[in-house]
Amino acid sequence: MMINSKPPDRPFLDHDQVEDRSGNIYMVVGNLHPPNAVVAYLKYTPTDTPTYWRRGRTYYRRIIRNYGVRNVKDSTRDLQEKVKDEVLGTELPVIKLSNIHYHYLPEVRLRNILCRAGDKLEARVLKLIDLLRQYTAICSSSLGIDGSILPGIHNPDISDIDMIVYGCKESIEVVEGLKAHTEKRIDAVLQGRLKRQSRIYGLPLGILREIQPPHRYIRIDGTEVNISFVNNTSKERYGFKIYVPIAQVEARLVLRHGECAALYYPSTASVDRVADLRIIGCSRFIEYSSVKYVVSYEGLFSYLMYLGGEVIVKGILEEVLPDRYYIVLVGAYENPGYVIPASKKMFRSS
Fold first, then answer.
1. What letter does residue 91 receive in the DSSP assignment?
2. pLDDT in the model for residue 87
3. Domain chopping of the chain, boundaries
4. Is the distance from CB of 72 to CB of 265 less than 8 angstroms?
5. Residue ranges for the chain with pLDDT beneath 50
6. CATH: 3.40.50, 1.10.8, 2.60.40, 2.40.50. Which one for 242-341?
7. In whole angstroms, what is the distance from residue 342 CA to residue 344 CA?
């Protein structure tokens, strides 16, 4: 396996991984990072106790057991550095650039596997690429490999395959191709996932089943496949926009259909129309037309946001400066919120 230091023309992107000088492995979150640090959460840490994850003679303990913003933050609370970020208006888990020893690049790791699959799990990665090529015109140069395979600590018998698709056109092509050719699963593994999500997010199983994306229904020779989408052409600079939390909000919104930004992390969908807006605990008057986007730090809702249409959103209303428009933020630690189809009556207009 090839380990990479950070090249000068390759910024830190969502779903990269980095290893610190003590051997801890972190998952990079998003493409926007403060000066001298990378937003990332601790995922694996070396241990003397045998575990499923191993590289050479070193075993690794997995820190994150269940995903979701609140679980990730609680799991890493006392294990890594955090900073109060005045730009994004929240506390962020970070690793300082000076503490980064290795930068793992998903696209480079995949190229190595394409040259030589080292075990049966890596061979299944090649099968997945063949499957994607059946349904889309995707090139391997637009793909990367993530998860425990990326740093080479995976267990060929139990690890999942975490594939990354880079680029807007490519992401939409994969989603639409899989939607046209993939059947929804109803099996014990999926039911177990939905039940875990229901406990984490407090949403009914029926809603969770409805918003599952087609790229969560794939299995290769019994191995679960996760596909994530990453913007590799992001131009936004840290500090160019300031996000100021205002109040909790519940809203009925019509989202634009088919935006690739909704597939990325954080998911961003344009608001075409505000049907209803209820601000909780704040008397500020908000012009409906000034609510421009829904932004979700919970990837669970990205596919629904990509589909667009009328949705019900609960989250935090934030003002974006200096342009002075508003977003509804889903996935704040204090008020996680949700995005659900408007047909589900969890929010009643007054």
1. E
2. 81
3. 17-104, 106-182+218-230, 242-341
4. no
5. 1-8, 347-350
6. 2.40.50
7. 5
